[in-house]
Amino acid sequence: MGLILVRYGEIALKGKNRPYFTKQLRRNIRSTLKAHDIAGDVHQESQRIYVETDQPDAALEHLKRVFGIVSLSKVIEVPLTIEAMREVALQMAADFGLSEEHTYRADSRRSDKSFPIISPEINRLVGGVVKDATGATVQLKGEPDFTIGIEVQKERALMYGGIVAGPGGLPIPTAGRVIALMSGGIDSPVAAWMMMKRGCGVIPLHFSQNPVDTEKALENCRVLAGHSQGWRMEPIVMSHAEAIEPFLEKLHQIGAGRWACVLCKRAMIQKAEEVAAAHHAQAIVMGDSLGQVASQTLDNMEVISHGITKPILRPLIGMDKTEITALAQQIGTFDVSTRTTTDCAYLPDRPLTKGSVEKLTRILDELAHIDAKETENDGW
Amino acid sequence: MGLILVRYGEIALKGKNRPYFTKQLRRNIRSTLKAHDIAGDVHQESQRIYVETDQPDAALEHLKRVFGIVSLSKVIEVPLTIEAMREVALQMAADFGLSEEHTYRADSRRSDKSFPIISPEINRLVGGVVKDATGATVQLKGEPDFTIGIEVQKERALMYGGIVAGPGGLPIPTAGRVIALMSGGIDSPVAAWMMMKRGCGVIPLHFSQNPVDTEKALENCRVLAGHSQGWRMEPIVMSHAEAIEPFLEKLHQIGAGRWACVLCKRAMIQKAEEVAAAHHAQAIVMGDSLGQVASQTLDNMEVISHGITKPILRPLIGMDKTEITALAQQIGTFDVSTRTTTDCAYLPDRPLTKGSVEKLTRILDELAHIDAKETENDGW
Prior knowledge:
The structure is a homodimer.
Chain A: E1 2-7, H1 18-35, E2 40-45, E3 48-53, H2 56-63, E4 71-78, H3 82-96, E5 103-110, H4 119-134, E6 137-138, E7 146-152, E8 157-160, E9 164-165, E10 176-181, H5 187-197, E11 200-208, H6 211-225, E12 236-239, H7 240-243, H8 245-253, H9 260-278, E13 283-285, H10 298-304, E14 312-313, H11 321-331, H12 334-337, H13 357-379
Parallel strand pairs in A: 5-6, 5-7, 10-11, 10-13, 11-12, 13-14
Antiparallel strand pairs in A: 1-3, 1-4, 2-3, 4-8, 4-9, 7-8
Helix pairs in contact in A: 3-4, 5-11, 9-10
């Protein structure tokens, strides 16, 4: 059997709500193990979660994507004597191949203070034999090549030789649920991922315009689902032709084709708000990055969100394309998003950059006028 | 005289609007130099901006904070012969102290194709003499210890030995202007900085509750002003006692003290919307990070932004505290933000986590009732 130590950071700060967050984190850890057929026992001891499993490497590989986890280590249980710690430290150094070309340090902390030797002394006593055996250089500051971690607890010490980074954030779905607009492009999956990181259960909403884009969007949702421990991600697909195109046609009729992108987005958010109400979601997530394309201006954002009452979350609003792209690669959605596709048939030559609520109102009035006329005709 | 090559990335993609962005970037570069008493000539040649100055090191130091700049290099003008390039490359290698312990590569590109030797051949011819002279190892992939950059232009080559990273983003204030709520804490200056990076002219709005916090907020504004090339940052300070506390007092009267944080924030945004209208700003920026504190829940965000028509931008909404803290340190606001201060007198023991628009409406009704009574009393 192997033992994994799970460290969580931010959740530890949550005061009275802490048990709620740690319970959800343990639940998400369990469901991750189960999803990958890894038998394991998950339990809490003071500020730490432990996973006991006979597949520690496989467990580490999957758990490092569970939001709320700051870092993980495979640990060895050691009796509470310096002699035992020294023996394990020497074994770990040998496994690593520690030599005089490397730097290292022993890094102990006592979560139980009844052990009579203080941390710096433990470091000296355990680290010293490693130096004698390998000739490696002690490095106390910064990141040495190798760290021997020692946690002194009440009845045992835990030792580890490596730390695997987790994604941080909060356990899904402790923050609630959101509707995330999902195109086939680079930005929207990254925006959804960032809100997942902050503990949101995401319901992706895609407007299907052509099969290629829809396949890209759904494939990205499958990638995201792999990060969505704690929340079953079920994308909703709506027909762009039914939901939005009749409206865009009318825009062209009244000569307001330049407004297509802005009003298409607005129509999508209006639909998203309906979906949010039906699914008890509390906000709408968009992949806007200010100024990235012509339609993502401050003026247009005001027009797009005019009359929407649910909060619109834009986690990428302050990010550069290079930063967003780097995240997409890390998440695993970049290759799908960058497959070639066809341009939207309604894309204007010169998309609107300076919309205003006043002009919006005029256009909506004019469209209502057309609708009224059509209804009259229907009556004939 | 020294010559600096300025590279901008994202702006180059802006199609028909490109001249607008590059003109603002040149303007911001000029005003940065002027603000630091550095004489310099700024001009554009195809996709590059050049700064000619006799204080290239000082110029680099300040220009590396100008938004829109991806990177900068001090460059040397070289006649268009391999012999001249070799001579400069050897000098640059000697200045760097390049030896057999280092890796390096020559990295040329021809922006003018009339020079008869193609790039890989230039690299070989120039890089070869460096190898012979120093014994350094050629490294073609990844990041070698030293890179010899060569840009072949129509009538000269430009060579450089180092690249200084800029902050990226877009030139201020090409994206427009925003009101940024500014407390004395860690998050709000970072949120403002991120929107500055995306080209916003920021008007900071602070609600003064105690002198310590106000000094912190104003000092952070001064730090941010150092990043705000192109936009004169003028903070607006409003009295918390006048603008918000009478309202909070009434909340306590009706036993709704738990709503203090949520409704205080809502009151601030309402004031911010008035300020935005007066200053022609197009959005309101907040430092919310989802779930970071009890009041930053999805439910509360809906309550806080209920009835606000300007877009609310929350660039930190998907970020962890550790990420925000790292940015604050990089920007230079962290040390100011973490100075001790006093807690808000209205801070409830158990702040509200699950507000709703329905409950909000009831509370506002009740408050209106009190107001009506007071008006009656006034009449007596």
